[in-house]
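Try this one yourself first.
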């Protein structure tokens, strides 16, 4: 497969990178609440404590500073709690060790590890992950849509910025969702799971000649902030449960970006609001 950067060129002095799931597209809550958590309860037979366990799944994956972590890390964290508080999880240590030591957290990697180690817990983790994907594919299209105001605000940003989608989600899914709702009309490049980490994507984009003071990453999870900070660019948070307001207020961020007043007090204020919202 050719590089997703093929043909890309800097057109404007400013660059805005935008995450997809949970940031531009209202998809994280529905995927975790309807797919990830319930599929875990079903695979491990946890109906006895279903409500408490699902509440903790959502807290870990949506509403605290671990928001947006890899699915297998989230699974390991909640099963560890279940093992300690509710019922024993067979062969759990194998999963915990694999999550800590593996270089790749994917279905292919967990499948290979399950076969190599003859691990019941890893086999169940694979079945769970495949069930999650199937469940996500079955979600009604009309229920996975942009947050209110997103299209208008991205169009506004595109007037003076190059716009890059920088997402860790599946490329085809991202492209389809952004195309379905007309957001793709205001995008210059789509960088998804196939393009590498968010940090490496921003790093590569910077090689096209953008001043770091002219670059803003827009995201909803600590991993997005981390990718921005490690590249020395600005971060604009979309606050969980306040997404529409966050998108409404991105106009102010755009003005700061253009005026060269984003760094310092304004950036610090945004980061404090973001971390306070997830603590």
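Now uncover the answer:
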């Amino acid at each position: 497969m050719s590089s997703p950067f093929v043909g890309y060129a800097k057109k404007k002095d400013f660059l805005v990178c935008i995450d997809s799931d949970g940031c531009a597209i209202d998809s994280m809550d529905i995927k975790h609440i309807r797919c990830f958590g319930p599929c875990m309860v079903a695979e491990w037979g946890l109906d006895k404590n279903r409500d408490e366990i699902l509440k903790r799944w959502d807290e870990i994956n949506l509403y605290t500073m671990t928001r947006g972590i890899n699915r297998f890390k989230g699974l390991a964290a909640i099963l560890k709690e279940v093992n300690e508080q509710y019922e024993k999880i067979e062969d759990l240590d194998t999963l915990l060790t694999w999550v800590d030591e593996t270089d790749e957290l994917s279905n292919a990697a967990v499948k290979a590890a399950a076969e190599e180690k003859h691990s019941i817990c890893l086999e169940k983790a694979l079945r769970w992950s495949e069930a999650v994907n199937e469940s996500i594919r079955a979600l009604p299209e009309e229920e996975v849509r942009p947050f209110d105001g997103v299209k208008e605000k991205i169009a506004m940003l595109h007037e003076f910025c190059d716009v890059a989608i920088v997402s860790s989600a599946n490329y085809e899914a991202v492209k389809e969702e952004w195309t379905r709702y007309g957001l793709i009309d205001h995008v210059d490049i789509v960088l998804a799971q196939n393009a590498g980490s968010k940090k490496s994507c921003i790093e590569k984009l910077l090689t096209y000649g953008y001043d770091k003071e002219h670059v803003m990453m827009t995201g909803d999870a600590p991993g997005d902030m981390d990718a921005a900070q490690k590249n020395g660019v600005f971060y604009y948070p979309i606050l969980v449960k306040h997404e529409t307001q966050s998108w409404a207020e991105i106009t102010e961020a755009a003005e700061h970006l253009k005026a060269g007043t984003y760094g310092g007090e304004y950036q610090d204020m945004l980061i404090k609001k973001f971390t306070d919202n997830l603590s």
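Discussion: The mean pLDDT is 95. Residues 120-137 form the longest helix (18 residues).
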